[in-house]
């Protein structure tokens, strides 16, 4: 171990007990419920959940196609019913040819003959997804519309932080020190007044005892802490139907695979994914972030992912407390991240291409700069052979970097 590394151990222990980081949306007053020392979060998977919050899922039609590919039995046997987006005129013509000699339909058959426009209106006016699902069981043709409606409902609940102002805050920030452009002077004054009122009312303390700054957006009394729900929207829907006794037991196992939207269908690994900075119109591709290309699984990258890049580029804290790689020629971890307070999303190359075609906006590919920044930091941590460091699969993180050896382990 180099002597310079040993000299940093004491500095790391001090930083570790003082500099804690997490991701927050200051303007929305939301914060991840995961904290960790900045020095450690940079090299483990503590904050990888951020990727789930920033994903722009593939379109609903692609989701349905991916489900059908996974479960071929989900596809309707009637070609006219496989695509709910098919024009209503074409469907009516096909149905007319098939049933031109049939007698007037009765009962459920009338529902099956409804024009597509009417079916869409019905689904648009059903406020509860439970009602939409039950209505979809009327017949196979209606079920195709119900599948689309339920999948779109789930899709809208994916990536709730995409497009919002993001900051990786430290618990040590100076007063009146905010990322540029995040708040106006008037907004800051309003926040400070609200903070003073809350402190005085809740804790009977002098408002000047607690100063409001960007670190305050990681406090439970200031923001709502967000946890990844243990149950998906679909599982909650299923529980509601079970409790109401509205879904026939014989149909349960048959319908759920057809409408379950999970990562494999809304963030498929066979698509090309990228991180986009919507504020500066810059993008970073997955291959620039990944340590090895075989570790890329769509937007999810093993060992080193988009959340690591966002952590160092959106970090905001006191410079004197954040430098942990000050030896040799390696750059320090930034405490004034150039992307702090910017808006982001993780999307497919197809989504990006469609956006560029629609808006004509020019984007800069900064994958090379991002790769160099991450590689330099990892080499500073693990040495020249950093790509081949063995991973601790039990705890989902690599061993402690060289400068951390001898420091207390987080466990």
TrEMBL record:
Chain intervals for the UniProt region annotation (Disordered): 74-110
Source species, domain of life: Eukaryota
InterPro entries: F-box-like_dom_sf
Protein name per Swiss-Prot or TrEMBL: F-box domain-containing protein
Organism listed in the record: Akanthomyces lecanii RCEF 1005
């Amino acid at each position: 171990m180099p002597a310079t590394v040993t000299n940093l151990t004491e500095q790391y222990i001090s930083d570790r007990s003082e500099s804690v980081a997490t991701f927050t949306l200051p303007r929305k007053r939301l914060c991840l419920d995961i904290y960790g020392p900045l020095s450690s979060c940079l090299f483990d998977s503590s904050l990888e959940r951020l990727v789930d919050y920033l994903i722009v899922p593939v379109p609903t039609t692609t989701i349905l196609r991916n489900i059908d590919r996974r479960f071929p039995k989900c596809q309707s046997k009637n070609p006219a019913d496989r695509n709910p987006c098919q024009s209503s005129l074409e469907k009516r013509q096909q149905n007319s040819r098939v049933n031109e000699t049939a007698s007037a339909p009765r009962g459920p058959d009338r529902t099956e003959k409804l024009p597509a426009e009417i079916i869409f209106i019905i689904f648009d006016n059903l406020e509860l997804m439970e009602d939409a699902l039950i209505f979809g069981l009327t017949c196979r043709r209606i079920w195709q519309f119900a599948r689309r409606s339920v999948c779109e409902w789930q899709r809208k609940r994916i990536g709730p932080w995409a497009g919002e102002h993001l900051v990786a805050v430290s618990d040590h920030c100076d007063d009146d020190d905010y990322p540029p452009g995040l708040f106006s002077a008037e907004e800051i004054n309003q926040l400070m007044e609200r903070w003073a009122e809350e402190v005085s009312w809740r804790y009977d303390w002098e408002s000047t005892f607690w100063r409001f700054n960007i670190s305050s957006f990681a406090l439970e009394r200031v923001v709502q802490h967000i946890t990844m729900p243990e149950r998906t929207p679909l599982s909650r829907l299923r529980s509601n139907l079970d409790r109401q006794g509205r879904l026939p037991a014989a149909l349960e196992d048959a319908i759920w695979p057809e409408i379950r939207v999970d990562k494999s269908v809304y963030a498929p690994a066979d698509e090309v994914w990228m991180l986009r900075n919507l504020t500066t119109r810059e993008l970073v591709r997955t291959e620039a972030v990944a340590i090895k290309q075989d570790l890329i699984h769509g937007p999810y990258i093993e060992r080193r992912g988009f959340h690591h890049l966002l952590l160092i580029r959106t970090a905001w804290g006191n410079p004197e407390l954040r430098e942990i790689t000050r030896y040799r020629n390696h750059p320090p971890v930034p405490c004034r991240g150039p992307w702090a307070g910017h808006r982001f999303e993780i999307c497919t190359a197809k989504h990006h291409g469609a956006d560029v075609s629609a808006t004509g906006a020019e984007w800069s590919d900064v994958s090379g700069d991002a790769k160099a920044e991450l590689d330099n930091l990892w080499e500073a941590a693990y040495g020249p052979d950093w790509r081949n460091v063995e991973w601790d699969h039990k705890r989902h993180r690599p061993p402690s970097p060289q400068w951390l050896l001898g420091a207390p382990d987080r466990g």
